[in-house]
Protein 1
Amino acid sequence: MSSTHAVEGIVDAGATSLLRFATAGSVDDGKSTLVGRLLHDSKSVLADQLEAVEHASRSRGQEAPDLALLTDGLRAEREQGITIDVAYRYFATPRRRFILADTPGHVQYTRNMVTGASTAELAVVLVDARNGVVEQTRRHAAVAALLRVPHVVLAVNKMDLVDYAEPVFAAIAEEFTTYAASLGVPEITAIPISALAGDNVVTPSATMDWYGGPTVLEHLETVAVVADPSDDPGRFPVQYVIRPQTAEHPDYRGYAGQIASGVLRVGDAVTVLPSGRTSTIEAIDALGQAVDVAWAPQSVTVRLSDDLDISRGDLIAPTAGAPGVSQDIEATVCHVADRPLTVGQRVLLKHTTRTVKAIVKDIPSRLTLDDLSQHPAPGELVANDIGRIVLRTAEPLALDAYADSRRTGSFLLIDPADGTTLTAGMAGTAFAEAAEEAAPAAAADDEGWDF
């Protein structure tokens, strides 16, 4: 089998194997109930789990089992009837396997959606049919767009409370679709549901015959999410250098890690970044066996023809499509820490397997979600703010634009004092639009961080 056919074969075989998706929405829109309904009606709930939920529901005076309790597992969540942390669940149907992230709806937990949606291929945004699109709905749509989630489902929930009225659904769907499309969301599917009653979640609704589209589960089972890895540029962040220096392998020098994107082949001319040194892939070892080709997200060991000074944090990429390196970074970020991010702040920047010192040189703007306008020169970003920042790093980084690679275009800013994650960053322009001209960088106190 040729290398090309090997890649095509794995893509075909995995086309319907696994879907990662996240749910989001405002408070009490019914996210946890929807997830519970999906698990219950797809028969993905074990008998003892259902019995525990029924017991907890009875103790709260509820006659019917509260399916939201299948995901709200923290004591505080059950006591308050809200979702606080991201709840990950696994379930499967005969057509596909799923990993879902049920994210919180409260404004102060919006940052948790960044965690849940960062690896998602699809986001389900719920809207209460009685309330329509609210600010938190727009915030979640903006986060999904920033994270370049390729598929968004608008689930208009609680249709039973508006008498299953088609005009209510149509108005909400039009408003949300117009807003999300302005953010550059490539695909939006609107579905009217009642998570509590089960309408259009797993089985079609008998009371909404005016809707002829798929149920939520049917769409999840059939949406196309797997792309050919050979379409993406090859990126291999080095995690570990293997030097056994044994009698059996006296000269073995391998670079272990997980392929972040694209395909690597034996014989490829590659460049090691940030040093810029070049070599050729001599061999690729996967699961103890030599292979001619490997692709994302496989974990492999790469051996090069030349003995180069390579360590953890370096990036190996095919020379033909190698990224540029720079110490100046402009990015859109979502601030996730309780303490603000300020101009002049010293941080650590973690990009793939590399962590370097950096300084926040400027915060040109903060996004206003109501009308997607940019508030200029805010001076700082507080928890859940989305904004533009300019960074200067101590060492050059091989950073792709996030629009080109969600894996190698993303980074984290970390507090060097205690290791707290401060900000999730996406390099390059915001959404699918051209970035506005950044204001001149403000002066920062670089004492002790001279770069």
Protein 2
Amino acid sequence: MAASRMVIENCAIATVDAHDTEYTSGHVVVADNRIESVGAGRAPAALERVVRRIDGTGHLLTPGLVNTHHHFYQWITRGLATDHNLFDWLVALYPIWARIDEPMVRAAARGSLAMMARGGVTTAMDHHYVYPRGTGDLSGAIIGAAAETGVRFTLARGSMDRGASDGGLPPDFAVESLDSALAATEETVDRHHDPAFDAMTQIAVAPCSPFSVSTELLSQGAELARRKGVRLHTHGSETVEEEQFCKELFGMGPTDYFESTGWLGSDVWMAHCVHMNDSDIAAFARTGTGVAHCPSSNARLAAGIARVPEMLAAGVPVGLGVDGTASNESGELHTELRNALLINRLGARRESALNARQALRLGTYGGAQVLGRAAQIGSIEPGKLADLVLWKLDTLAHASIADPVVALVFGAAAPVTLSLVNGATVVEDSRLTTVDEDAVARETRSEARRLARIAAEG
């Protein structure tokens, strides 16, 4: 069957391709779920089977945003422990998180996904690692919520096997055994991972962090991922306390510890990576290990400022992450473009540490690299999947900023006029087309209250 086409024209375009090609007024033609062409001026008038033609005057078209780190379940524990560092924050919240169940996780996933999608995210991921016993199919609930919302999705199937009695932070009843964690992770890969070019759901193997999992879970998890041909994800070098923990327990810093367990490589990405010295950055660059930079969460928990400019200069793949909404209550990725740029400029003589186009690249192509999908998404190029966002820049908020990329990154959050995932409309005129936002808000509010009641009862 011949492809149907959608045309978006008369808009500024930032392709984020290898040459940072931009058009002050250009067009993109989408054929089914692929980008067919991109160029200057209007699309050819004689194109056949055009089912929709969109006038993008006053807009900027970019690749869809790619979120590389999140914890959806935290949507229903927002606004708690607001003045804590990471370890104290975890100690305060783990007893609450340990009481989540399938309806709560489904509601939290729907809320997290809806908030991201309406703000320009077309590819999301969730690092879910809390699996209390007897609470239902949590992974299935998350994957179902992503399918309902219509975004491309990676579930990083997390795990913890180091409970409080073994020196970890989570309560013992919230962790899995080594064997059950590995078995459940493998089952999730077998049931849900799609290796296809246009896959909507992929799975990664993702033990939580050095201080909540055993060395055996890390090393055997890496073996499992490589046997199954999927990616690996965890938290790394987030705080000074983590570095001290690794040195005391393992006799080495986090990066050396990860390398000793098979956790450096081009199929690995780690969240945060705030406390990285020159040799750590060199090891990531040498092995192609990726980083999910989460500037708002790092600031919220006073973790520090990741050395993103140095990582980029060394050739480390870097994307952006919302992180869980218990440490980034906005739950939006497009604000991370601005925060990444501003936070990395803090300090003397750092006024050009990151620029607007580098920030946009972090949120699009960089994220695609980190998730192992740069051949399919992350830039506007013929043959790639039609994951696109049309940002409205002709309102008062951006009216006097001539450069549209600067307007998007430096300016106020821009409304999303259109968001396409796989060529299908997910957002139109700043509203989700796939789910009822108001119903999602009611559901998440109800489940947050239920969790608070259960946690209070102990």
Protein 3
Amino acid sequence: MSDLKERAQALDTADALAPCRELFTLDDTVYLDGNSLGALPRHVPDRMRDVLARQWGELRIRSWDESGWWTAPERIGDRIAPLVGAAPGRIVVGDSTSVNVFKAVVAASRLAPGDRDEIVLDATTFPSDGYIAESAARMTGHRLVVADPSDVPAALGPRTALVLLNHVDYRTGRLQDLPGLTAAAHAAGALAVWDLCHSAGALPVGLDAHGVDLAVGCTYKYLNGGPGSPAFLYVAERHQAAFDSPLPGWTSHADPFAMDLGYTPAEGSVRGRVGTPDILSMLALEASLDVWDGVTMEAVRAKSLALTDFFLECVEAYVPEGRVTSVTPAAHAERGSQVSLRCEGAAEVMGALIARGVVGDLRRPDILRFGFTPLYVGFADAERAARVLAEVLEA
């Protein structure tokens, strides 16, 4: 035990990202739930006091121009873009992940040739994505084909319009092969739509480099945007002129203040907008993104893999044999930034962990889920979490 504690201390001392922890509001709790809700960056409350007191309280309606409220969806999209491997002008921020999944799926079905009438859906998807894909299929007259990600290439065919996939499995932490599956969809003449909720801010994505067509992601997990912060929509440059949103709102109009009853879409990623932006949560997100200044996704990924490797090593050393089983792939190329452990009595175990200051979460019926956010989680956190887990199971 002392050897692992000493190693954790040495790893934290050598960690180039360790100073980032001071940018967040944290306490003595080991917080391993940033894959559900990221921690609060320290400077955000002061920034929001200005938004509330001056921009809203004093400038009021003038802030749409003078404080840059109107252009926030595109401006913040451009700040997220380098974190997911996209050029400026390809991401717009607004609405929820689910709403953006709906936009992306329906728009992709409209971009596909007219004789393609199948939507291939990731069988391991987050439930909302599945609900929306099913509804979109009914609305568009498409047939839904459900396939495990490993079986997607075999499920693709001449009738496939698009495939909707999750980059990281929210239950197991398995990282799917985004380059390979995107290439397989394109080889079949279909479009690839990706959900990045559990990868944006945790690992390099490479949207432009890998030719992804459309993608969505949330901002309240690894991007630390705050509870319910707005999601983002990526539209590849080659599709923007033909992108036909199923939710054409006034703020995506080419001349929104003309109040024309006929809809003329704006150019570029602005087409992904719908209604009035949710300014308060959007500007909290914008402030939160400051913590990424000077940070590379390569450094984040390297620490993420080192953290999860070390945590698994500590679990193996501390936890009584046979009490937990990792369902997260051991191979780095197949692992996101979380570790999921199958455990009997998982609900009670997680409750006891939280009571002892180790916060993860539960996926029923038997999965303990631990998210490792490299900007503020350290190796001592990983060692302590595994040690407390062992104490709980022994008790």
Protein 4
Amino acid sequence: MADKIVVAGVSVDTRHWIGGERVASADTFTDNSPIDGAALGEIARGGPVEARAAVAAAKAAFPGWAATSRAERARLLHAIADGVEKRIEELAIVETTDNGALLRSHRRGVMPRVAHNFRFFADWLLTLEHEDFETRGHANHVSWDPAGPCVLITPWNAPLMLATWKVAPALAAGNTVVLKPAEWSPLTASLLADIAAEAGLPAGVLNVVQGYGAEIGDALTSDPDVRRISFTGSVPTAERIAVSAAANLTPLSLELGGKSPLLVFADADLDLAVDLAVEQYDNAGQVCLAATRFLVEEPVAEEFTRRFVEKATALKQGDPRDEATDIGPNIHPRQLEKIDGFVRRAIAAGARAVIGGHREDGQYYAPTLLTDVAQDSEVVQEEVFGPVLTLQTFADEEEAVRLANDTRFGLAATLATGDRERAERVTARLVAGTVWVNCFFVRDLQAPFGGSRLSGVGREGGTWSFDFYCDLKNTVTAPGGWNDHG
């Protein structure tokens, strides 16, 4: 196996990064581009041996990193951000080639956000304090102690951005990290290891191991030296991780699937509502937060649908490296088959495809809108994770809330209305970790992020991230009683 491959002119090391060194594996797996299906190269395929080595390296590096001052940790995180910013174009083209998301989005939004992830948590660390208080004259002081080695398992739909959303606060908190990227999009995690090393991050503080699912995941999540596990992905995988972590009572943060609603009331700005609706095709529908269920008030449903179809059919689907492309490919043939299966079963059950409903050439699926779907149908209840949306109507506010909350999930919700009081009433009743009112995908890193029900466990962001990645300690000191040594 070649130690490096060249992707769109960028050299990427295909080996693991463990203890500050590149480590090969006896086995490999093939990484293919979703753009044209071409093989990008053979990637080191780790298993229990590599998992244990990475955790051992993180454990060995932990005491020194935990003892590093906040100021120095922050400086190094800013140095990593500097490295990201110097390589935005390289990171953007590699990630687009590897996972098929739009190059223009990676250049202008995603990769700058990667750098911001490190800068934000570096700066937040320096201001992190709990207010001291007294209990019957005793002083209470709350502090954040680094927890230990953290295993971070990240998804394929926004590989580097979602990885650094976890890596940055874990490192800022004084923990060491083992990052396991998704096997369908592993390349930018390897580049991140290079950037961190160039920034001066000590050996073993960040480790990157690659491999297929449970082959390496079980060994990572069951290791007794791991003190935190953060995972973004599917509910079935989260269930497996939870069972694995239970033996050691390892704390978990889980950001899982969604089946989020977009509620459009008759008093909404309909042009805005349609814009919000079309935005749900972002990243070929491979966004956990996407509002895939349109719930539209009956008086405006016909006009909303007409305007939506007009705007959605104008979207350009094609090569994500083309500046004019709006929708790229789906990540993998297996994912494409899953998406198509949802649609075929829905149509067989009586749904109507207003637009789309079929595959295109290669790994592309036509943007689809399904109507005449039952509330208890599979396509309404289960996450498709592709460019497939459904539309239902409601008669009044009560029915809108009932339909919106009637799934197993609770990750997000989007609301379009011109009535401020209605927005407040409905928002208060929606089961969701995030609610957007007359907007979508506006995220501030200081806000709590996570899901309700099967959409996840815990919250991260701002102080919530440090609460998770640290062991909080309260020191209670009695008044007086000190020996005075002058």
